[in-house]
Amino acid sequence: MSNGDTLTPGQRRLAKANRKRLRASETKAAERLRNRGWICLTPEQVATLPEAVKAIISHPQLGKLGHDTERPAQSYSERRPYAVAENLDALTGPTTGTITLPHRIDWSGSPTHDLDNPGMLRSVYQTILTEAFRQEDLNNFLNRAALIRLWPDMFLPAKVRRLWEERFPELAATRTENPPCTPSTNASPASDSPPERRTD
User: Fold this and answer.
1) Is the whole model's pTM more than 0.85, yes or no?
2) Pairwise pLDDT comparison (110 vs 196), residue with the higher score
3) Which spans in the chain are helix H?
4) How far, in Å, CA of 77 to CA of 46, rounded?
5) Spatial contact of 141 and 99, defined as CB atoms under 8 Å apart
6) Residues 160, 79 contacting (CB under 8 angstroms)
7) Taking residues 134-145, what's their average pLDDT?
């Protein structure tokens, strides 16, 4: 005989009510996460979390621990800082031959790139623009003429384009007739992780 058969009608009603309350709690926790720009979980996924985690995400002070609930959640690429050159004329990096980027910029495991390959050159510039934090890295690895030439065709976070074009209007002018390759800024809060680097 199963355990369910040994329960009295009253016990079965109580168990059903408890399951209903638990389901409502898990649904509410999932909604709280979405409303605060945290990772997006379904009630079913919340149900699989450890009890300690469910207690934290259900806490009434969660809003103070996470994002400002009055502001729309931003993607990772919009929140993180980026370096912008101080002067385009200071960008005197190579445009031919091979280049080896330091690990702080290129952590792909293959830091040596052939700049004579147009696709590789564009990929290197995308990596530098999104990962470099030092002015000397921008000056030593980017080249003014190459940057201006490649600017309309690079796949860059919207924030990177905005910061560089606000400082250097000549970059914006290069894409007047060529729409930029820019990822959507309406990313779900679930995509709260660094974007994958293109390797073309």
Assistant:
1) no
2) 110
3) 3-6, 9-35, 43-47, 51-57, 62-65, 76-79, 118-131, 135-141, 144-150, 158-167, 169-173
4) 26
5) yes
6) no
7) 96
